[in-house]
Amino acid sequence: MGNRNKVAIIFTGGTISMKIDPRIHAAIPALTSEEIMAMVTNIEKFADIEIINFSNLPSPHITPDMMMDLSRLVKKTIEREDITGVVVTHGTDTLEETAYLLDLTISSEKPIIVVGAMRNSSELGYDGSSNLSAAICTAISPNARNKGVLVVMNNEVNAASEVTKTNTLSLDTFKSPEFGPLGIVDNDEVIFYRDILKKEHINTDRIENKVGLIKCAPGMESDILDFYINSGYKGIVIEALGRGNVPPKMVDGIRRAIENNIPVVMVSRCPTGRVLDTYGYEGGGKHLRELGVIFGGDKPGQKARIKLMLALTVTDNMDEIRGFFEQKL
Ligand code: ASP
Predict the structure, then answer these.
(1) How many CB atoms neighbour CB 72 within 10 A?
(2) CATH class of 6-192
(3) Active site residue 15
(4) Ligand 1 neighbour 114 (Cβ under 6 A)
(5) pTM tops 0.90, yes or no
(6) What's the fold here for domain 211-326?
């Protein structure tokens, strides 16, 4: 039995550990890790399982500090010689942020898989057990090594750096809209179709909480920017319009933030595509580039925010922060 694979499963909560409370007719965290694992039938044929309880929280209750605690725990666990891979269960609402934070802060060749469920255990067609078994099969696959943190849901394997929750209901909600999945889990086997060329690492075990996120819409002004500037925020992420443009009345606030050494990272509110300095009008990308705005590539705002929260613990130098976002492969 010496060569058996051993997978540590770290439980954090989410719908995968929920059932309907009959008093309030709504889902709440209720299942123990052992109760969840009892539904993952036949898994002992594939691997030995070690259960580690981190929390039993809905994912809107998970804070960046908790994500960092989780990162430390995953790192400690994946370094153990007896562990082949680590699976983390998580609520799907903020799963992409936690997965991305783990991806940025942990360098390991071994597979680290984040998984959740869209239907709770009181619903018909609970997807927690099938998602967990697919995650465990991925965690023991030699092909899943050196791929960074992966998200496995609905038999698809996506990179933590690319995946986002796209649908409030569908089992097929986790997508990489820009480039598609890395692979699939078929018949308990993981098949990869492509690799991740761009692997990023931020060497820190701390996180800066005071990073704001603003989504642009027509007619918006600088009031929210000024709120962040006056409230001691250390960084601001803007989900700009289209190719990377903002309404003209936001420009003053952006200028003030940068004058106060608060990095402003711009991504787009479009679901796919990079931001670029294509437009030269007031508030256009070219204007923002001249003001010193950092271009955040094709990440959604919530992920650019995680990256900025980590980068700010390494440096407060604007050009070094820019390097984290604008470096080419
Ligand atoms: N609201 C739940 C959560 O994120 C959704 C889920 O887990 O699917 O905890």
Answers:
(1) 12
(2) alpha beta
(3) yes
(4) no
(5) yes
(6) Rossmann fold (3.40.50)
